[in-house]
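Hello Y.,

Per our agreement to keep a running log of every chain we model this quarter, I'm adding this entry. I've kept the format consistent with earlier entries: sequence first, then predicted structure.
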Amino acid sequence: VPLAESGGGSVEAGGSLRLSCDASKYTYRNLCMAWFRQIPGKGRELVASIDIGDRTTYADFVKGRFTISRDKSKATLSLQMNSLVAEDTARYYCAGINTKFCSGADFRYWGLGTQVSVSS
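Predicted structure for the entry above:
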């Protein structure tokens, strides 16, 4: 598995967490990458993405609260999550694809995920 997430955990509503994705073994780490999340019984949903020019996009439900970033020197993709609410409880996945831009991307590379639990 070329992508490895970390940083999940349990937090109270209003709190913050920072997720990290180790992409050091991932060839296309400077191209389009993204964070997804999945709630049991539901499909994965896109949370945020970042393209080759470090342009970012966010799902409406996280705008203003989450920030995706990439540290190329450390081969790490991050997701800073602030003002967490119970509805953010999910398993979060790092994903990638070997294209420069993320629009319409069919992500092919996935980590195993990290669990985030937010209590209200």
